[in-house]
Design goal:
The chain contains ten helices and 14 strands. By secondary structure, it is an alpha/beta fold. The strands form four sheets. Strands 1-7-6-4-5 form a five-stranded mixed β-sheet, with helices on both faces. Strands 8-14-13-11-12 form a five-stranded mixed β-sheet, sandwiched between helices. It is globular. The mean pLDDT is 96.
């Protein structure tokens, strides 16, 4: 019987570069109040958003993904041809075929990579990051580009104030490479799961192809179920809550973000733990929200190279995932 040979494995993966992209157009709460029955105070109090970015009608999702990916590759100090795997986390491609990843790779100049899309909605980036890290650890990849990209405004009913005030467009990316040794591993094991029985809480309704969600139900679920996932991710990484420098939850709602941070601090996380609040100026960008927030915080000097960050995504499916990473 013939014996199979496995590819050389790596002890794990680390993030070596990041990048992000947002459209130029800014839509304020007052802009939305001119169309639907709402106002700036109502929006700030309920979701914490002040403004969001909206892509032009002719601005493609793959174009946004490619720009975020290009910047991440540049930040990593490598050539596009060094990348062998591209994963695009998205739930808003206009059509399922062709996939976003192969088109994005071609726009960046990445030649013949393994390329696929991953749809776990707002948990997509954490799912994709965990998948890429495991591919590297198994020896199936050496350098992976992971992108979260969404054009949610293509799927909105602009007369529905429960959704049009929340969702926005953008892309964020990270480059992962094989760690040279166990001491250099920078992406912890993924803690993930799903609650398919709750799928109707966030869905695209067939009668108008528009995104809809049960806001209060999602809020109650997220504020009780996400902190345990975050704690499990910390445990899998062999750390304690006190080891976490930065918390980057999916930017769904500022009140949810604050509730998760409060629960983690009650379990031993530091009071000075930096907490992402990118939703205030970026809105909810689904799978793009975590990498967007990370890149914005790094650019603003709120986090430093070597900081230990806890990422946790959650959303439609319902799907959820989290992992601990070391900031590049």
């Amino acid at each position: 019987m013939s014996r199979l040979t496995l590819a050389p494995a790596a002890p794990g993966a680390r993030i070596i570069g990041m990048g992000s992209y947002q459209p130029e157009k800014i839509v304020t709460n007052d802009d939305l109040a001119a169309r639907v029955e709402t106002n700036d105070q109502w929006i700030r109090e309920r979701v914490g958003i002040v403004e969001r970015r909206v892509a032009a009608d002719d601005e493609l999702l793959v174009a946004m993904a490619a720009e975020a990916g290009r910047l991440a590759v540049k930040d990593a100090g490598i050539a596009p041809t060094d990348v062998d795997t591209v994963i695009v986390a998205t739930c808003t491609m206009p059509f399922p075929i062709p996939n976003a990843a192969a088109q994005t790779a071609d726009r960046i100049g990445i030649v013949a990579p393994g390329a696929f899309d991953l749809n776990a909605a707002c948990a997509g980036f954490s799912y994709a990051l965990g998948t890429a890290a495991d591919l590297i650890r198994a020896g199936s990849a050496r350098t992976a580009l992971v992108i979260g990209a969404e054009k949610l405004t293509d799927w909105l009913d602009w007369d529905d104030r429960s959704t049009c005030i929340i969702f926005a467009d953008g892309a964020g990316a990270a480059v992962l490479s094989a760690a040279p040794d166990a001491e250099s591993v920078g992406v912890g094991p993924v803690a993930w799961g799903s609650a398919g029985d709750l799928h109707s809480m966030i869905e695209v309704r067939p009668h108008n192809n528009a995104l809809a969600q049960e806001g209060q139900a999602v809020f109650r679920w997220a504020t009780t179920k996400i902190a345990p996932v975050a704690l499990r991710a910390i445990e899998l990484a062999g750390l304690t809550p006190a080891d976490i420098d930065v918390l980057v939850p999916h930017q769904a709602n500022l009140r949810i973000v604050e509730a998760v941070a409060k629960r983690l601090r009650a379990k031993g996380a530091r009071q000075d733990m930096v907490v992402a609040d990118d939703i205030v100026h970026s809105g909810n960008t689904s799978s793009a929200s975590i990498p967007l927030a990370l890149d914005h915080m790094r650019t603003a000097g709120r986090i430093r190279s070597g900081d230990v960050a806890l990422l946790v995504g959650f959303g439609a499916g319902l799907s959820y995932a989290g992992q601990v990473v070391v900031c590049p």
